[in-house]
Amino acid sequence: QVQLVESGGGLVQAGGSLRISCAASGRTFSSYAMGWFRQAPGREREFVAGCSRSGGSTYADSVKGRFTISRDNAKNTVYLQMNSLKPEDTAAYYCAAKASLAIYYYYTRSSEYDSWGQGTQVTVSS
């Protein structure tokens, strides 16, 4: 029942940084665990980062140490801060929400999520 809209994508040089955002509508944002996924041409959608209702996080090995997921419940927004970007990070990035009774759980499988945004393109040049 939550609407998600991503923004902030663009073209970045390798080694640069970018922060993308996902704005959620509704009054129950704090009841959702959130996640970021990405999909490059010819590839399946893959997990990037997940955030629990309490703000705890988990990351794919490919982005660990470079990316940070965070949420601001007052703004109904989840962020993905991307540092030390590599050309292989080029993809369409999607945010997702999962209604959850658990405070501390995060989720890594796309099939676990209930709602999806339309995506924002991130392109990293060499």
Helices and strands in order, then pairings?
Elements: E1 4-7, E2 10-13, E3 18-24, E4 32-39, E5 46-51, E6 57-59, E7 67-72, E8 77-82, E9 91-99, E10 115-116, E11 120-125
Parallel strand pairs: 2-11
Antiparallel strand pairs: 1-3, 3-8, 4-5, 4-9, 5-6, 7-8, 9-10, 9-11
> How many strand segments?
11
Report the portion of residues in β strands.
over 45%
- Distance between the terminal alpha carbons, to the nearest Å? 40 Å
CA radius of gyration is 13 Å
Mean pLDDT: 96
The secondary structure category is mainly beta
- Determine the number of helices (DSSP H or I, runs of at least 4 residues): 0
SSE order, as H and E? Answer: EEEEEEEEEEE
Shape: globular
Major sheet characteristics: 7 strands, mixed
Q: Kindly state the percentage of residues in helix.
A: under 10%
Low-confidence stretches: none
Q: How would you sum up this structure, described in words?
A:
This protein is mostly beta strands and 126 residues long. It has no helices and eleven strands. It has strands at 4-7, 10-13, 18-24, 32-39, 46-51, 57-59, 67-72, 77-82, 91-99, 115-116, 120-125. The strands form two sheets. Strands 2, 4, 5, 6, 9, 10 and 11 form a seven-stranded mixed beta sheet that branches. The mean pLDDT is 96.
Short summary:
0% of the residues lie in helices and 48% in strands.
Describe this protein with a few key phrases.
single chain; mainly beta; seven-stranded mixed beta sheet; 48% strand; globular
